[in-house]
Design a protein that fits this description.
CATH superfamily of the largest domain: Bira Bifunctional Protein, Domain 2
Helix content: 25-40%
CATH architecture of the largest domain: 2-Layer Sandwich
Number of domains: 2
Oligomer: single chain
Number of strands: 16
Strand order of the largest sheet: 1-5-6-11-10-9-7-8
Distance between the termini: 42 Å
CATH topology of the largest domain: BirA Bifunctional Protein, domain 2
CATH class of the largest domain: Alpha Beta
Structural class: alpha+beta
Number of helices: 15
Largest sheet: 8 strands, mixed
Shape: elongated
Radius of gyration: 28 Å
């Protein structure tokens, strides 16, 4: 037997309706916020992620699925959604469209890492991106979109944490302070942190090694180094969140794991998904478009892992069940049941009949297993009269209904 690859997971028919609920909720939320869907390839040129995500991030240095195709090109399965959307924004000239441009996606992503609770090598992400606005209102709107999405899913207890990591100007001063702080203990830190010390000391704060956490815990806080413009921007973001009634906590430890972020960063955190409890995260990335060869276009967005959302406790509806099961007693009556059932399907009724040549008793057992709301059997007398008895399984009540009227009867009586 060939087993599923490590770090991947099948979505079985008994579970897929939950995924559909999450995806439908994502799309309905996106519609309310004026977002239109964008679809980008599942793989991109590796350079996109080196330049966009950042060469010193864990994603690029440790987790990407990179390979050489038959043309000798370096290709990478996308580890996140934003970089591909940014590439598409530039390549397709979307800066010439009315701004802000608002887009969303639901896409598989791939990261080679140790599988654990809520963290797989193939995972799925719902994300939104807004291009064109540098205003704090845009940050607050994106955060509120995430808040609305989680609320519609029925996720309880998710808390919002926000921070600002400043712009290039204040980041330069902050990096100097970090180097001064880490230098005396640098030899005691991991090799990755020592490598990041010169290249990007901010990334040292994102280290997951326990030994390094002892030093990062006391590191200077970025909020103490914000320039006046970044400080004002962050204050206004907080004001707009208050206007929207969104509760938040300022967490100066949030830096996010990708290099393209600037100014506002945020995470929605849940205790239900293990030690790494982020179920949705994002922020502003004003420099990404220019870094990838486009113009100076500000942007903000978020990504939410669908598998992690499910662990956080989604208030999903019950699994769908057939509206009606119609049994037949012999070849002729099974043929009639087949005809009626498929006619009902064309009218939007979820109907089932026998495809296994089961006995009537076995057919009713099957109907019970699939939780059909109504059942009926067609025999000689039903064929002669053109009517059948529809039994409501929840209370056992029976109604005689003409074959031609089954659709109308189910439409009028099949509520909930």
């Amino acid at each position: 037997m060939i087993n599923i690859p490590k770090g991947t997971k099948d979505v079985l028919p008994e579970q897929s309706y939950i995924w559909q609920f999450v995806e439908d909720t994502a799309r309905s939320t996106a519609k309310c916020f004026g977002l239109k869907e964008i679809r980008t390839p599942v793989f991109e040129h590796t350079e996109l992620f080196l330049r966009g995500v950042g060469e010193t991030t864990d994603v690029v240095t440790k987790e990407m699925y990179t390979f050489e195709d038959k043309g000798g090109r370096s290709i990478t399965l996308k580890p996140e959604g934003t970089a591909g959307v940014a590439r598409s924004f530039i390549e397709n000239g979307l800066a010439n469209s009315p701004l802000p441009l608002k887009a969303y996606y639901i896409t598989p992503c791939y990261r080679y890492e140790r599988p654990q609770k809520g963290r797989l090598r193939e995972f799925h992400q719902f994300g939104i991106e807004m291009f064109g606005s540098a205003k704090p209102e845009a940050d607050a709107e994106v955060i509120f979109a995430a808040h609305t999405f989680l609320d519609k899913l029925g996720i309880k207890g998710a808390r919002l944490e926000i921070n600002s990591i400043g712009c290039k100007t204040c980041r330069a001063e902050y990096n100097k302070a970090l180097k001064e702080y880490f230098r005396p203990n640098l030899e005691n830190m991991c090799g990755t942190c020592r490598d990041r010390f010169d290249k990007n000391p901010l990334r040292m704060l994102d280290c997951k090694e326990e030994e390094c956490k002892k030093y990062t815990a006391g590191a200077p806080k970025i909020l103490d180094y914000l320039c006046p413009d970044c400080k004002e921007h962050f204050e206004k973001v907080k004001e707009f969140l208050t206007v929207l009634g969104v509760e938040y906590t300022v967490n100066s430890g949030i830096v996010r794991g990708l290099d393209y972020y600037s100014r506002t960063v945020f995470e929605f955190v849940s205790t239900e998904v293990g030690t790494q409890g982020t179920i949705c995260g994002g922020g502003r990335y004003d420099g990404l478009i220019s870094e990838l060869g486009g113009g100076n276009v500000p942007a903000v967005g978020f990504g939410a892992g669908i598998e992690r959302l499910m662990l956080a406790g989604i208030d999903s509806p019950s699994a769908p069940v057939p509206d009606v099961y119609i049994a037949g007693m012999d070849e002729a009556t099974r043929k009639k049941a087949f005809e009626i059932v498929n006619g009902l399907r064309t009218q939007g009724i979820a109907a089932e009949c026998d495809l296994m040549e089961r006995s009537v008793k076995a057919q009713f057992k099957y109907a019970d297993k699939i939780c059909a709301k109504y059942t009926a059997v067609i025999g000689e007398s039903e064929m002669a009269s053109g009517k059948c008895n529809l039994k409501k399984m929840s209370d056992g009540s029976v109604s005689e209904v003409a074959f031609a009227d089954i659709y109308a009867y189910l439409t009028n009586n099949n509520q909930g």
